[in-house]
Amino acid sequence: MKKRVRKNTISNDVIILGKRIEYLIKEQKLKPREVAHDANLDIENLRKYIKGKQEMKVSTMLKITRALNVSVSELFQDNR
Predict the structure, then answer these.
(1) pTM to 2 decimals?
(2) What digits encode the pLDDT tens for the residues 1-19?
(3) Can you list the domains of the chain with their CATH numbers?
(4) What is the DSSP string of 33-59?
(5) Nearest to residue 20, comparing CAs of 42, 43, 44, 51?
């Protein structure tokens, strides 16, 4: 079976957003599985978002913010 190749590269912003989601999950001492469940997402898709390997729809991003109990603006804050 051939490995799928992306037609276009993932933007750095998507990677940064994934890292921010990962940071918020850890900060709240949650497990990705719990967040995926609360956001009604498949855990594998959440992992792809966290790793910056897949872009998400705005509706998916809103589900994640609700599951993390953060605002959209908090999702985009710098966590350095």
Answers:
(1) 0.85
(2) 677 665 678 889 999 999 9
(3) 12-75 (1.10.260.40)
(4) HHHHHHTT--HHHHHHHHTTSS---HH
(5) 51
